[in-house]
Amino acid sequence: MKFRILTVCSANVCRSPFIETLLSRALADSPTHFVVASAGENAADGQHACTVVAQDHGTSDAELIAHRATTLSTRAVEAADLVLAADRPSRAAVVRLQPTSHARAFTLREAAVLAEHAVGTERPTHDDPVDALLALVAEMSDLRGTVEMPRSTRHRVPRKPWRRVEVHGNDVPDAHKAVDPVSHAVVSRMIIENASTMASVLSTVVRSASDGTGPGQARYVLG
């Protein structure tokens, strides 16, 4: 079985392709077959990826050079077991397109906090790693509203007139915004930190299911 992850941002040229690249690389050696894809609710199909965010942190251009922007579709959302949106507007676009996705659609930063919390508590045991991952996603959804999310932060706009803008704690901001963008360095730092957390949690769940080392009695039963 495969576990499918869809990453989403507005144009599918900067944030979601970078999240896709990092997750794909981190999960490449997993015994479970992860399929990671990306799309954008306002994407211009075929557009090349922005490599600035990757260059800031030493990711080679080759990892993004083959990327071409893809418009978010109902089929892509329906196929995904987990949707990771860059920010709340992109997450809202996913749910508008496919309302039944609300329980498996999160922002990246929201998902990282919920997943880390879920994996640190008593969780279900499953023989099949994909079942364990699906149960994790369900648990993450159940935890909404019960776990403290990151607070909003203020970041400097990297052009005149110099000022600071507030970024919601659930969002990875868009460095390509026409008004009040933040720097690519801020964006890449947030993506790397939270994608790393997600990859670590997903790998832990797979490993626990594969070798039977997961917590004992399940408090959530899949399906």
Strand-helix topology:
Layout: E1 2-9, H1 15-26, E2 33-40, H2 52-55, H3 62-65, H4 74-79, E3 82-85, H5 88-97, E4 105-107, H6 108-119, H7 129-142, E5 153-156, E6 164-167, H8 184-211
Parallel strand pairs: 1-2, 1-3, 3-4
Antiparallel strand pairs: 5-6
Task: Write a brief caption for the model.
40% of the residues lie in helices and 14% in strands.
Task: Using brief descriptors, characterize the structure shown.
disordered C terminus; 6 strands; Rossmann fold; 223 residues; alpha/beta; two-stranded antiparallel sheet; 8 helices; four-stranded parallel beta sheet
Structure commentary:
This protein has a single domain, classed as 3-Layer(aba) Sandwich (Rossmann fold), CATH 3.40.50.2300. It has 8 helices and 6 strands, in the order βαβαααβαβααββα. The protein has helices at residues 15-26, 52-55, 62-65, 74-79, 88-97, 108-119, 129-142, 184-211, and strands at 2-9, 33-40, 82-85, 105-107, 153-156, 164-167. Strands 2-1-3-4 form a 4-stranded parallel beta sheet, sandwiched between helices. The protein has a two-stranded antiparallel sheet with strand order 5-6. The protein is globular and about 55 Å long. The model is unreliable at 214-223 (pLDDT under 50).
The largest pleated sheet is described as:
4 strands, parallel
CATH class (first level) name? Alpha Beta
Overall helicity = 40-55%
Number of strands: 6
Distance between the termini: 17 Å
**Rg result:** 17 Å
Q: Strand-and-helix sequence, N→C?
A: EHEHHHEHEHHEEH
β-sheet strand percentage? 5-15%
Strand order of the largest sheet: 2-1-3-4
- Determine the number of helices (DSSP H or I, runs of at least 4 residues): 8
CATH-derived architecture: 3-Layer(aba) Sandwich
Protein name: Phosphotyrosine protein phosphatase I domain-containing protein
Domain Phosphotyrosine protein phosphatase I: 3-119
InterPro entries: Ptyr_pPase (IPR023485), Ptyr_pPase_sf (IPR036196)
